[in-house]
Amino acid sequence: LQLFHDSRHRLPPGPWPLPLIGNLHQLDHLPHRSLARLAARHGPLMSLRLGAILTIVASSPDTAREILQRHNADIAARSIGDSMRACGHCERSVLCLPPRRKWRALRRLGAAELFSPQRLAATWFHRQEAVAGLVRRVSDHAARGESVDIGGAAHAAALGLLSRTMLSADLDSGTAREVSDIVDEASVLAAGPNVSDFFPALAAADLQGVRRRMARLVRRMYAIIDEQIERRKHSHAAGEARRNDLLDVMLDKEGELEEESTDDMRRHHTIRGLFTDLFTGGETTSHTIECALAELLQAPNSMRKVQEELKSVIGTKHQIEETDISKLPYLQAVVKETLRLHPPVPLPPYEAEATVEIQGYTIPKGTKVLINIWAINRCADAWVEPNKFMPERFLRTEVNFMGRDFQLIPFGAGRRICLGLPLAYLICPRRPHHQVYRLHQARWNNHQVKLHQLMSSMDQLLVAELNNYNKRFTKEDDKDTPRLNQRGELRRTSSAWQNCHEETYGCPVLCGLAPVVVLRSFGDRVEVFAVSVSLFPSLGRIQPWSAHDLIRIPYLTSVVQTMAFFLACISSLLFIFLTTYIFQPHLDARRRLPPGPRRLPVIGNLHNMGRRNPPHRAFARLADCYGPLVSVRLGGVRAVVASSSDAAREVLQEHNAELAGAAAWTRGTRAATTPTPSSRSRRAASGLATEAMLAPRRLAELGTAREEQARELVRGVAEAAEAGEPVDVARAVFPRVAGVLWRSMFSEGEDGLDAATELELGDVVREAVVVAAAPNLSDYFPVLAAADQLGVRCRMEKLVGWTYALIDRPIERRRRARAAGEPRKGDLLDAALDMEGGGEVDGDDEGWVMNQDTMRGMFMDLLVAGSGSTTSTI
Ligand code: HEM
């Protein structure tokens, strides 16, 4: 139904979604790449359904400009992943907050206290120290001929730098390691696919446990930040000098930024939120440094040019100043080219806060909007050989990443452009050049840099996971099984493996959905490939996984397994549903039912009903073949049709006591607001109606009103006939009949029901008759009734609601008149009000009470049944 709903909007083009999963099957472990491939086929503004979420993806500089510049006022809110809701973090995170007062205040604070030119100038020595420490570490390793985990070292240095800038102090080594681990794990959790993000209705269940794991990390991070806050408060209390850093400023402004709270999770929540975001920002910087070095190691020419530039500008100087950066154009070009090819945030997610039109297409309010920075930065129209690492391209162009040139937006653009851009701008160019310079001096042999050592420290987690797979899927005592050790190196346990060039692991679990990990060894070099065998064809192909991609294996698996679990649940339900309907005809055949046509599985005899003829005619034809008492199966409902006077007498006279219940198949149209009438309450209501409305005395009293209505009807028809116009008899008769019934029930004339309302009442009652008589899937398959696929109950509810509101008016007026002591009118309404509160409550479902609801139901039934049948007779 959602897909049907989408097709009615003028959405941008996109791949055809499957029911339930939408286009999820077309995404693989690197969604920005899969989306870029799809965009090449469907265009730079593309719509998809990711599970239940309508998503628009912008993949070209022009579409990004439209969204982040022209429509930025309407598309500036974040689409928040479920993991970010852990411990309410999204309510205090500048990353997630909607673009309103608090978000503006936090951004202003960050911009003024951390990233303003004055602040950055005042804190240059912190950066100098952090970089010097990193360089020392790298050169020590290099001097000893040891390999270095550059990602881990760069991340530690970035965190050190951030803590010095925010807290004017280093975190102790244990805490720094813990923060680094938390940030690593949190980034993986937040970036990994999560079923809750694609099916928000399931979010409460947190099926993959992502929110739970994130909550543990957030709580730990908040505890570390709280510790720093407490320390600072003690130092203030002890009269130590203020440091005027971000923490001091935020403590001063805490009163303005948050309400006082005694709740432990809400204390200092603004400081906790902002500091957590800023610590997380450090990861992007180390990722960039790592990628720049990885690219340089694979491009000897570029490496040589950087080294020569450094030699000529820096010479024998041991320390490099920030002012030197402007004299190093080639190094700057290397950083820009790295950010172009490897943006650390490739798909920032937004949400449309209003419906907007872009390039003639509609983006409805509430849609998720993804800016595919990865695809935009590689746009073939903007760049020559877009996938090649060519820093030289930036020596010839003024293009910059400050958010104005939309062909290069690694930091995003518009109102939500990266908050840390000024800092990142200063530290990114410095680090690679320090490292390259030192590596060169120490004659570091780049053969020693193994692929996995360039991974960030996140890969430890992956290695543990891979080992888990190995343990689970291979025999523990199998000596031939190569294992990855904790440092990510392959342990070769036998000579057989030494000679083997390819080995495959994995075993099919749950519908064959487990990943198969393939390790290839070429002499010294190890490459890791993964193949995922799944129900989804696009996941089934073999894909080479680079070191960076490797981390995604467990996450891809978890989402695929969760999806598989759901598919298994849904297919089981479908299986039960189908088998029930398939076997029902066989069960029927074993009972001594009246004769009837052969039933088909699932639909039973629905096909015998014909598409055009009304059911009574179809049943009459069946009676000609099978006799006056025919048994049929209408979907899931068994029915017996009586078609002769004898059969009717047996049903309506002899067995009337047992066969007087309402047909089961009226369930689908029964509006939720209508109380289910028990047979006793129905009997009571019909007794009341016969006595108070249809008694000869009462009918005689209303004779004049009926005659007046008939005269008006004839007058209307005659006028139309004179003018030569056709007359819709049903439309003319319905309001008259409904009007007569209204007067009989409530004794109200023009004063109670004016001509316009009478006409509307006629239309509503007429529509209710049509809706109730139309075929409805819910009547034939009661298990589907809750879903109301054809929307029949929903339509009926609207009509019933309108009529109930109308019926309430005379009831209210009469209550007031009776309270004021006005004389009784002796009509059905008076009789019903006399009985109010009375009834027969005997505990079982046969009990009933006369109350407002019973009255509404009774009056509505009389209106629909009375006017429907009378009009069709006329
Ligand atoms: C190479 C370094 C970095 C890159 C490439 C980068 C990239 C990005 C990108 C693409 C966004 C999303 C922008 C959008 O939604 O349009 C972002 C947001 C953000 N970044 Fe960075 N970033 C880097 C470094 C940093 C650093 C060092 C910090 C802080 C210490 C930081 C803090 C933030 C914050 C707080 C936001 C959220 C802004 C908001 O939603 O209002 N970033 N970054």
Strand residue percentage = 5-15%
Q: What is the overall number of helices?
A: 30
N- to C-terminal separation?
Answer: 40 Å
> What are the segments in which pLDDT stays under 50 over at least 5 consecutive residues?
260-265, 430-557, 664-678, 841-846
Number of strands: 17
Mean pLDDT rating: 75
Derived structural class: alpha+beta
Shape: elongated
Strand line-up in the sheet with most strands: 1-2-7-4-3
Description:
- The chain is of the alpha+beta class and 874 residues long.
- The chain folds into 3 domains: 2-453, Cytochrome p450 (Orthogonal Bundle), CATH 1.10.630; 471-563, no CATH class; 668-873, Cytochrome p450, CATH 1.10.630.
- The chain contains 30 helices and 17 strands.
- The strands form 6 sheets. Strands 1-2-7-4-3 form a 5-stranded mixed beta sheet. A 4-stranded antiparallel beta sheet has the order 10-11-12-13. A two-stranded antiparallel ribbon has the order 5-6.
- The chain is elongated, with a radius of gyration of 38 Å.
- Mean pLDDT is 75; it is low at 260-265, 430-557, 664-678 and 841-846.
- The structure holds protoporphyrin IX containing FE.
- Protoporphyrin IX containing FE binds at residues 94-95, 107, 162, 277-278, 281-282, 284-285, 288, 339, 343-345, 348, 373, 410-412, 416-420, 423-424, 428.
